[in-house]
Specification:
With 309 residues, this protein is an alpha+beta fold. It is 54% helix and 13% strand. The protein is globular.
């Protein structure tokens, strides 16, 4: 197994004190623009022009209410997540990150769609709502919302979906999760991600490893939690069994394509560190212990390829 190396200062060194939150570095802005260029255009889809014009008007009305500073922070966080999942391969099971059209971003709550490694011929998609915030409460609220949505037999219905590699475009129903990234982490990570791997120092490499493992755990544990919540419902409704199966397939894909034993041991090492100074890292400890409990609960309910005692 790979050696686990974690320093205590990793948690403190997440802020960039020499640059204000509202600014994205010029180097990282090029990556942001590259992702914007990949977004599906309204005209890429075969809708009547009057429908496209109506949706463009809705988008324009929405954007007229945005504050520049909030938009800049959101764009930074979303780009860090997309870059990490795509170019940095933070989750090995993810084979592509598909950006969404503004309409699906604003009105379907989906910033990008992940395509996972799948044994079946069909594509395995997961919609992601990215929030650049330190408010972990959004995760719990979103999971409850997703559970309610799925239990009604519904999925997020994207209108302007376009997966060019799979030659699939048009309406696409996808299960979904939410990912949050603290603005401090986003600012710190952009400085690292513009550097080639070989030019990153030890602290930068450790910080990348931290974010990579936590993001992988977040995606995995959210899918597990949604699956287990649906399992706990008294009556089994056929209308959401297929949706639940999709979450299970994503979980299986992550486990099969990840060094899950390393990831779990990394989590246990984090828990040990933050417990030593729990008064300083109380919020982090709650997050990490929830990950661990979700992994234990899922192991008890499902046959999975890891062992926790």
């Amino acid at each position: 197994m790979r050696e686990i190396s974690i320093n205590k200062p990793t948690f403190e060194e997440v802020s960039s004190k020499d640059r204000s939150f509202e600014l994205m570095s010029s180097e990282f802005r090029q990556k942001y623009k590259a992702w914007k260029d990949r977004e599906p255009k309204f005209e890429d889809l075969n809708y009547d022009q009057d429908i496209i014009d109506q949706d463009k008007a809705k988008v324009a009305a929405k954007e007229s209410k945005f504050k520049y500073s909030e938009t800049e922070i959101a764009a930074l966080g979303e780009t860090v997540i997309k870059q990490g999942l795509y170019e940095e391969a933070w989750v090995e099971a993810v084979v592509d990150v598909i950006p969404t059209n503004k309409f699906d971003d604003y009105f379907r709550g989906t910033d990008c769609v992940l395509r996972f490694e799948s044994d079946s011929n069909d594509s395995l998609y997961l919609g992601v709502d990215v929030k650049t915030t330190a408010d972990r409460g959004l995760v719990n609220d979103k999971i409850a919302e997703i559970e309610h949505f799925v239990s009604s037999g519904k999925l997020t219905n994207l209108k302007y979906f376009y997966d060019e590699d799979m030659d699939r475009k048009g309406p696409q129903r996808v299960p979904s999760i939410i990912l949050i990234i603290d603005p401090r982490y986003a600012i710190s990570m952009q400085d690292i991600m513009v550097k080639p791997y070989q030019k990153r120092n030890e602290k930068e490499a450790q910080k990348t490893e931290l974010v990579k493992n936590l993001l992988s755990l977040e995606i995995l544990c959210q899918c597990m939690e949604i699956d287990l919540r649906l399992e706990e419902r008294q009556e089994v409704q056929p209308r959401y069994l297929e949706i639940q199966k999709t979450y299970q397939e994503i979980i299986e894909s992550i486990i099969q394509n990840t060094d899950i034993v390393y990831t779990i041991n990394y989590l246990l090492a984090l828990i040990k560190i933050v417990r030593e100074e729990s008064s300083r890292y109380e919020d982090l400890l709650q997050v990490f212990e929830k990950y661990l409990q979700t992994l234990i609960d899922y192991q008890q309910k499902r046959e999975v390829n890891y062992v926790l005692e």
